[in-house]
Inverse folding.
C-alpha cells in the first residue's frame, strides 16, 4: 500500500491512524534515510496510543520503552542506526518485547537488523518525494 | 570523607576517588584519582556507539579501571560508593551498578545511585564552591540529552525544558555523518568551523523553536535542513571551504537556540547563576558565547562551566553529585545507605 504525505502534520496523522489497525504484538520496521520522517511517524504512533511522554530520539540509548493505556500496554521504540548486527539488539533485551501480546515494537533503521525481525513484521519504507516536504510511504505487511 | 565514583552509562568506563571536606570554605573537593578508559578508538571505525562492543568493553575495563583509581587508597578507607543508575544504555549501566553493589556488599560500604544528569550538573562544583548562587538555571547538553533545569535551592532541581526529538550532541553527530567528516561529530564539526575566518557566508539554516512559548528544543529539523542543502549542492561537497561553511553555520544554529532559551529562562526566573554542563559544553564557541550573553544580563548573573575534561563523561562528577546529595540526608537516611546494594536497580529512562 502506498501513501503520499505532503507535510510533517500529514505524516504525524498517518502514524496516528496507523495505530487503529494494531491489536498488540506487532513489530513495525521503519526503513528510510536521515530526515525521511521516521521520528515524526513514530510520534504519530505514540499519539495514537495516547502516550503523553515526549518521544525523543533513542539513537544514544538505543531503546526506550513507554507505558500505554488500553490493550497495548508497552510501546517499545528502538533505533538501530548505530548497529551492525541483530545480535547487538538481543544483548540490550529487545526479545522481552518482540513476542509480547501487549507490546508494540517499532524499530528505526530496520534494514540494519533484518535477521531479528519476525516473519509477520510490518515494514514501512519511506522515500523522499519530488517536492521538499513530500514523502512516499510504502507499507508492506 | 572519601567517595568512590563509578560511571558506565554510555561509552566511557570510569572510576574516581574524591575527597569531600564539607567544613573547609574554599574548595570542598580534592580529586584523589580520576580514571577514564576512553573507548572512542573502538567506536570510531563504526561511526557510532555499538552497544555490544560498549558493553563488552565495560566488562573488560571495569575492574582494571576501579583498581587503578584505588592505587593510592585502600578500598577499606572508602566511606561511600556512588554509581550511575540511569539514564543510559541498560547493558552498560548494569556493568557499573552490579560491580558497585558487589563492592558495597563485600566491604560493607554505603551505596548511592546517582542520576547521570545530576552528575553533569555537579561537575560545576568540583573545582570551586560558589556561594549565594540560587536560584540558578542549568543547561545540560550532551549526545543523549538537552535539558534546561531550574534550581531554586540546593537539592531542588526541576526540569523546565528539554529536546522534543534529537539531542544537540546527536545533531552534531548526524551532521558530521552527512558530511562524512568523522566521529564524534561535535569536535569534528567545530574543528571544521574554526577554519573559517570570514564568518559571513551565504548559508542560512533554521533556528528551530525560537518563537515557542516554552523552554523546549528541537534539533531534528535542523538536521533535515542540512540534509536538503547537501543534496542540492552535491557538486560542491569536495570543496573544503563549502564543508567548513556548513559546519560553521550549523554549529551557530545549535548554539543560538541553546543560548536564546537559556537566557530567556534566566530572565523569567531572575536567577543569580547559570550553569552549563554535559559533553557539548566542551564546545569552545558555546562556552564563550553563552558566557558573553550571561554577562550582559542585569544584576551580575554568574556563569559557571566545568573544565572541559569534566564536561565529557567521567566518574568524578558522579562522586561529587553523591557528596552534594549526602549533605542533605538525615542521619537515618545515611544509615540506610548500607542496605542499598539489595535495592538499587538500573533505570534506563531515569528522569531528573
Amino acid at each position: 500500500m502506498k501513501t503520499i504525505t505532503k507535510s510533517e502534520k500529514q505524516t504525524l496523522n498517518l502514524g496516528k491512524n496507523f495505530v487503529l489497525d494494531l491489536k498488540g504484538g506487532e513489530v513495525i520496521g521503519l526503513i528510510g534515510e536521515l530526515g525521511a520522517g521516521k521520528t515524526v511517524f513514530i510520534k504519530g504512533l505514540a499519539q495514537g496510543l495516547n502516550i503523553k511522554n515526549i518521544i525523543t530520539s533513542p539513537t544514544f540509548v538505543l531503546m526506550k520503552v513507554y507505558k500505554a493505556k488500553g490493550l497495548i500496554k508497552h510501546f517499545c521504540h528502538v533505533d538501530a542506526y548505530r548497529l551492525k548486527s541483530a545480535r547487538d539488539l538481543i544483548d540490550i533485551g529487545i526479545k522481552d518485547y518482540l513476542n509480547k501480546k501487549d507490546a508494540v515494537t517499532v524499530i528505526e533503521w530496520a534494514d540494519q537488523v533484518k535477521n531479528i525481525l519476525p516473519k509477520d513484521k510490518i515494514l514501512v519504507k519511506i522515500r523522499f518525494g519530488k517536492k521538499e516536504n513530500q514523502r512516499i510511504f510504502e507499507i508492506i505487511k | 570523607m572519601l567517595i568512590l565514583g563509578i560511571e558506565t552509562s554510555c561509552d566511557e568506563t570510569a572510576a574516581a576517588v574524591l575527597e569531600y571536606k564539607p567544613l573547609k570554605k574554599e574548595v570542598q573537593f580534592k580529586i584523589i584519582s580520576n580514571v577514564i578508559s576512553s573507548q572512542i578508538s573502538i567506536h570510531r571505525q563504526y561511526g557510532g556507539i555499538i552497544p555490544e562492543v560498549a558493553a563488552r568493553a565495560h566488562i573488560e575495563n571495569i575492574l582494571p579501571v576501579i583498581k587503578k583509581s584505588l592505587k593510592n587508597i585502600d578500598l577499606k578507607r572508602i566511606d561511600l560508593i556512588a554509581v550511575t543508575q540511569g539514564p543510559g544504555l541498560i547493558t552498560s549501566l548494569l556493568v557499573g551498578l552490579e560491580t558497585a553493589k558487589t563492592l558495597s556488599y563485600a566491604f560493607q560500604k554505603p551505596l548511592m545511585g546517582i542520576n547521570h544528569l545530576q552528575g553533569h550538573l555537579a561537575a560545576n562544583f568540583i573545582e570551586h564552591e560558589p556561594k549565594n548562587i540560587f536560584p540558578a538555571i542549568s543547561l545540560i547538553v550532551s549526545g543523549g540529552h538537552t535539558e534546561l533545569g531550574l534550581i531554586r535551592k540546593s537539592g531542588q532541581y526541576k526540569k523546565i525544558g528539554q529536546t522534543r526529538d534529537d539531542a544537540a550532541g546527536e545533531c552534531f553527530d548526524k551532521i558530521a555523518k552527512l558530511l562524512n567528516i568523522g566521529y564524534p561529530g561535535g569536535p569534528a564539526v567545530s574543528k571544521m568551523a574554526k577554519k573559517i575566518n570570514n564568518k559571513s557566508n551565504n548559508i542560512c539554516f533554521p533556528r528551530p523553536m525560537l518563537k515557542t512559548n516554552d523552554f523546549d528544543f528541537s534539533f531534528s529539523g535542523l538536521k533535515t535542513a542540512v540534509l536538503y542543502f547537501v543534496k542540492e549542492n552535491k557538486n560542491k561537497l569536495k570543496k573544503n571551504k563549502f564543508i567548513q561553511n556548513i559546519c560553521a553555520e550549523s554549529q551557530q544554529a545549535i548554539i543560538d537556540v541553546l543560548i536564546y532559551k537559556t537566557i530567556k529562562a534566566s530572565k523569567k526566573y531572575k536567577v543569580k547563576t547559570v550553569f552549563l554542563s554535559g559533553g557539548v559544553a566542551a564546545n569552545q564557541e558555546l562556552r564563550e558565547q553563552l558566557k558573553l550573553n550571561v554577562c550582559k544580563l542585569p544584576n551580575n548573573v554568574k556563569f559557571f562551566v566545568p573544565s572541559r575534561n569534566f564536561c565529557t563523561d567521567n566518574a568524578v562528577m558522579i562522586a561529587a553529585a553523591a557528596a552534594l546529595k549526602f549533605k542533605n540526608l538525615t542521619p537515618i537516611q545515611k544509615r540506610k545507605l548500607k542496605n542499598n546494594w539489595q535495592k538499587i536497580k538500573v533505570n534506563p529512562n531515569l528522569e531528573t
